Amino acid sequence: MPIPMIRFKEIDALQNAMNQLFERQRINQLENEVFSTYPYTNIFDKGNGELEVRLPLPGIDINSVDITLVQGKLVIAGERKSDRIENAKSIRSEREYGKFRKVIDLPIRINHDLTKASYANGVLHINLIQAEEDKPIKINIS
To answer: Which helix H or strand E contains 34, and what residues bound it?
Structure first.
């Protein structure tokens, strides 16, 4: 017995709906990945238990940035205000605006008293020193 053409149209419509659903999901995933990577971060191991974290934050009021150490994580949060011109149509905009929150798992425990941050030429520098009790010690064999 042949399958009526209506069934093929229903299957085709279902397939198109599923494709659209997965495409929307993929676009949402890409948007979330882009947002979660901002601000871009470089972490350097300077040796002797010292790390330096660098985040380019040009055009940001540094007073709107909060840096916190909590449970082995470095948390940097802030907001970049829009610099759009009122009553002007945007032709191209490549900068991200709005609130951001970056959480970095640290590979070492940090001495909070020796942590320092500075901001120069649009780059935030955070210097982290390993806690003494977390540094390796040599054990002599007797």
So the answer is: helix 5-37
Nearest to 72 by CA among 118, 30, 104: 104
pLDDT in tens, 4-60: 556 667 777 777 777 777 666 655 554 444 445 678 899 999 988 899 999 999 888
Neighbours of 135 (CB within 10 A): 13
Chain center to CA of 99 = 11
Residue type, 7: R
**What single-letter DSSP state applies at residue 109?**
-
Residue indicated by tokens 């901001």: 119
- β partners of residue 49: none
In 4-140 the beta strands, taken as DSSP E runs, fall at: 42-47, 50-56, 66-70, 73-80, 98-105, 116-120, 123-129
